[in-house]
Specification:
By secondary structure, the chain is an alpha/beta fold. The protein is built from 8 helices and 7 strands; from the N terminus they run βαβαβαβαβαβαααβ.
Length: 242
C-alpha cells in the first residue's frame, strides 16, 4: 500500500517543493493550504501529471477543528498517515520596542500554536514506524533585529520536538525539525531590497541562498528509510549560515 504524507502550507514555496519531492518518492500526498485553493489544486494536478497521487485539503493550522478535520479527511481518503510535515508558517517582522501585540499573536498562532496542534494530531494518528517533521529556522542563531516574534515562535517549536519524541517512545516514530537558512522563496524575498538579498546570500560559506529543493532533500531523507535513526533532532539545512 502506498504510504501517505501530509504537508502543511504546501500550496507555495518550500511546502510545494516538499509535496512534489515526497510524491516523487512514492508517497500519496495531502497538499494542505490555508486560503489559496487554486494554487493547491495546481500542485495536485502537477503531481498527478507526473504519475503521483495527491489531494488538496484546506485547513488553518491555528484552528483546532480545522487541523482535526485535516487528519480525519486524510485517513478517510488514504487509509492511514505515515509522514506529517508541518511546514506552514508566516514571517511578519516587527521591532520588540514597538510592542506590536497583534503581529506577535498572529505569528505565535500560526507558527507555534499551529505546530502544537499539528504535532498533537500527528501523535494520535501517525502509523507505527512513521515520521513527524516540524519546521524551525536557522535565523534563531542570528538574533536579527525585527525578527523577535518569529524567532520566539521557532525557538519554542524546537522545544516541542524532543518532548514529543520522548512521548512517542515505543511506537517507532521519529520526531525531528528542519531549520532552513535563507531560502529563495516569496516568504523570504518579500519586502527585501536587492542589496539585502545579496548581503544575505553571502552569509553562508557556500555563498548562495538555499533553494526549496535543498530543504525538500532533507525532508525526503528524514521521511525515507535512511532517516530512521535520526530522532529528536533539529537539522540546520543552511549551507553553514549558522
Amino acid at each position: 500500500m502506498r504510504k501517505t504524507a501530509i504537508v502543511t502550507g504546501a500550496s507555495r514555496g518550500i511546502g510545494r517543493t516538499i509535496a512534489h519531492r515526497l510524491a516523487a518518492d512514492g508517497f500519496g500526498v495531502v497538499v494542505n493550504y490555508a486560503g489559496n485553493a487554486a494554487n493547491a489544486e495546481q500542485v495536485v494536478n502537477e503531481i498527478a501529471s507526473a504519475g503521483g497521487g495527491a489531494l488538496a485539503i484546506q485547513a488553518d493550522v491555528a484552528n483546532p477543528e480545522d487541523v482535526k478535520q485535516l487528519f480525519e479527511k486524510t485517513i478517510k481518503a488514504f487509509g492511514q498517515i505515515d509522514v506529517v510535515v508541518n511546514n506552514a508558517g508566516i514571517m511578519p517582522l516587527s521591532l520588540i520596542a514597538k510592542g506590536d501585540v497583534e503581529t506577535f499573536d498572529k505569528v505565535i498562532a500560526t507558527n507555534l500554536r499551529g505546530t502544537f496542534l499539528v504535532l498533537s494530531q500527528a501523535a494520535q494518528h501517525v502509523a507505527e514506524g512513521g515520521r513527524i517533521i516540524a519546521f524551525s529556522s536557522s535565523v534563531i542563531a542570528k538574533s536579527f533585529p525585527t525578527y523577535g516574534p518569529y524567532i520566539a515562535s521557532k525557538a519554542a517549536v524546537e522545544g516541542l520536538v524532543p518532548v514529543l519524541a520522548n512521548e512517542l517512545r515505543g511506537r517507532n516514530i521519529t520526531v525531528n525539525a528542519v531549520a532552513p537558512g535563507p531560502t529563495g522563496t516569496d516568504l523570504f524575498l518579500n519586502g527585501k531590497t536587492p542589496e539585502q538579498i545579496a548581503q544575505l546570500s553571502k552569509l553562508a560559506p557556500l555563498e548562495r541562498l538555499g533553494q526549496p529543493e535543498d530543504i525538500a532533500n532533507v525532508v525526503s531523507f528524514l521521511a525515507g528509510p535512511d532517516g530512521g535513526w535520526v530522532n529528536a533532532q533539529v537539522l540546520r539545512a543552511n549551507g553553514g549560515f549558522a
